[in-house]
Amino acid sequence: MPSNPLPLNSCRSGGCTLTGALSVTTSVRDSVSVIHGPAGCAHHNFSLLHATGLDNDHVAALNLISSGMQDMEVIFGGEDALGAAIRSAIRQDVSVVYVLSTCIVETIGDDVAAVCGRDWGVPVVRVPTAGFLGGSFQTGVSNALTAIAGTMPGRVLPKDPHIVNIIGEKNLEYEVEENYREVARLLALLGLTINVRFVHCTGINELAGLGEASLNILRDDEMQPVGDLLYRKYRIPSIPSFPVGLSGSLDFLKVTGDLAGIDPAPAISDEKDRQDSLLDGFSGTAGSMLRFSLTAPDLPANRAISEVIARLDLKVGKDGARVPMPPSPPVGTEGVRRMLHRWRRALNAGM
Amino acid sequence: MPECENPLVPCAMTGAVTCLAGFSGITVVIHGSSGCYYYPASLLHAPLAGTFIVEQDIIFGSEDRLLEVVRDLSGSGMRIAVVTSCVPAILGEDIKAILSSYDVILVDSPGFSGSFEAGYKNALSILAPGIDPGTAGVNIDGVSRLDPFCRGNVIELTRLLSAAGVPVATVLCSDELGKLASCSQYTITTDGDLASGIGTNLGGTLGLDGVRQTFRKIGDAFDGSDVAPVLTEIDSEEERLVRACDKFLRRFDPPRAAIFSGSSYASFAAAALKKYLDAEIVCIGNRGEPAGQADFLSVPASGYSDVRDLIRKHSPDLVIGSSFEKSLRGTAAFTGLTPPLKDRVRLFPEPIAGISGTLSFMEDVINACIDRESGR
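Predict the joint structure of the above. Result:
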């Protein structure tokens, strides 16, 4: 997305709560997401989610219904329109209906909770969203995951020590599947398999098994509140983030192995060999000068980048080739490999 | 409006921003939340600004925030246009009075107030284009940055007008703001759904017949013009097109086509398919507002389920539309005509208007149909 040169207060550019929540609820199969607001808000999000699905080589079974508010509903209230939209959703014979609201609805004061609380015959789950009135994009993601978790039975299930859950994937991320596969590959080195992706193209029946895993892998530290909730609910400990960079991947193997009661040494040794081989493949870039800006050197992403620069003996200077920085930290060894291909492309092009 | 499943049409705010962002010399400020900002910004790839209002602005008023943004932008030599989204539109603030110290174009265009086209035309009417009889050339109308063929259309029509010795006057809406006050008295149109009504309309530029008729009128209207090179090119290119289509029909049946677009583009596609491939137009799903008069019957298709139902009902073997239709086409061939076209990298400024536009469209159709028939 284009950046805006305005003197923005950063909290103003946190994105839309509705979009964040929809990135989660639309990834629950056999569900409908009702958006209470003008049709334009639903279109914005449908278009975005559809395009993201195409980018990721699959079009998710998107199922949005807008209550289609117009002038009359804005003036006289839109609860009847919401009720009609929920009825339409239920006619589709789905397992669950998620109801999300927009800024205009919160401003005029529709009682969305009361409408959702009626006896609809199927679960109608209100997800707290209100566009900018509800917080940021990330707040929407957390609210949706929390609302979904809240609908599941709370009893602690027997644990399978060899399965883990993935919590809070960034469903709109361009590399979401590649990042997932990298985490799955690293976990496989430890003999672990993935149980539930909470939530990424996940069915309601799959969600019921969430409590059977021995460990939750959070996408990043912004998912900690959801990790805490799942710990309270199922007594499942969590790893705070996907692995970032080379050392981060080895650390991930160690911490995950230790928590799962598995000796991580063989997996770490294999992964070190893989990383050495990866860096050998890029050894021709040694001594090259590149430029970029690290705004906060203490962040894991920047630590990972600094490590790669040091190990490849790259130079950083204002006359170097401008290399692209990944929008989110490179996940695992494979994330570093893709980042290095982009850097080498920039070095080859001299731009 | 009743509830709508997976709506496919952008809102009036997006329409207004699309119109304004087409003019260099304007800085567009979306007065609304970051969510309202990001969608048009990601679609239009234009340097938009926003107020990014938050909860405190609703409770205590958005005046300070709006003034902060406008003050920072003023003095750059650019006109500032403020477009209001849903929430600011109902707060009851007198935005005109708030901004009275600044030379600002104010467009009240909340998303709930109507369609994309309505918002686009409303914004253009507020810009108040003027005609200057002394301005040479012809205006190009119906150009929208949302249209994937926007750049290609302008390049193609500029090429054809140049071949005819007629300069381009003002491009609505993709030009310098200053040229809006002195439009030519003559206009030709690309997407008729977005026609401004400025000047005498010499005709459309979709389809070879349309280009031919329009350039004949241009020849009549402009002393000193020479449209013969354009008419000659149409004849020779049409001959090539007919040969290619005829060759297709020697092996394959004509396509049964379902078309999903605005009235103007849909009518063009239907007429071209009928004329050159003897296609059966099994349905036209109209994305926008229905045209007053059309050669082909159409039904509204502004939601994903409308499209799905029409495709299921008619089982076309060729679907023309956007990425939405592409994902619902099943085994049918597909050709892109309607925004958004998101699933393919698009770098070349392909037109849909003019001679090259028809050739490009029909080339895509024939190749898509051959690939389908041959199982490629």
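Chain B touches chain A through 53 residues (CB under 8 Å).
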